[in-house]
Specification:
61% of the residues lie in helices and 9% in strands. Helix 4 runs antiparallel to helix 5. The two termini are 30 Å apart.
Length: 213
């Protein structure tokens, strides 16, 4: 029974990973609303896995690494796909690259400029690796949490489509603005700026982290 209980946080983390995989599929199919809500669900799982692990006192290095790997997908790779699709919609050129292998011609259709979108998962991966390498914990976060960054970028297509945000829609449709936002977010995620952590002191018996990484 104890072994089953110990796996509860890891199962919740796995649910976060599954949400990230599903959200990536939705984003690739231009189903942005489904992608946003699935990412949000994954981030919710990300909140509770750590809270439950701490409350049951069953934290482990395996859980820490699994949590970060799940976050790379949900809060890194998924927004990267969303922004790649936004680049395509901005009208940038898509090129066909042909490779001949064993007398077979394989065609790859890629928008080279849109590949900048994948600096988002790279930046998220660096942040998460940096977090895991820290030896001490603090009541503050350093840099922009990856879930907050993911929610922002995954919400861009929804804001573009919503009439209430029509005044900013042209900006988010611009490839130049997207490039600026990408590099700004990568910098913010990996900066040493101290940000406030919303959590209840461990002495109270409850640990609640909002956007834990």
């Amino acid at each position: 029974m104890k072994k089953v209980v110990k796996q509860i946080p890891n199962l919740i983390t796995s649910a976060n990973l599954l949400c990230g995989c599903l959200a990536s599929v939705f984003a690739g199919l231009n189903q942005f609303e489904a992608a946003f809500w699935t990412v949000l669900l994954g981030i919710t799982f990300d909140l509770f896995d750590g809270m439950i692990a701490r409350s049951l006192n069953i934290t482990s290095d395996l859980g820490l690494q699994l949590d970060s790997l799940a976050d790379v997908i949900t809060s890194g790779f998924t927004p990267g796909i969303v922004v790649y699709q936004l680049f395509i919609r901005s009208g940038i050129l898509v090129h066909d690259f042909k490779i001949n292998i064993f007398s077979e011609t394989i065609v790859f259709s890629i928008a080279p400029l849109a590949l900048i979108a994948f600096f988002l998962p790279i930046g998220a991966a660096f942040r998460l690796a940096k977090f895991n390498s820290l030896q001490s914990k603090s009541s503050d976060f350093f840099g922009l949490p990856t879930p907050a960054n993911a929610l922002f970028f995954c919400s861009l297509p929804l804001m573009i489509a919503h009439p209430s945000f029509s005044f900013v829609a042209p900006l988010f449709k611009s490839a130049h603005v997207l490039i600026f936002l990408i590099f700004l977010s990568v910098f913010m995620m990996n900066s040493n700026w101290r940000l406030f952590s919303l959590k209840i002191n461990s002495k109270s018996g409850i640990n609640i982290f909002i956007f834990p990484l």
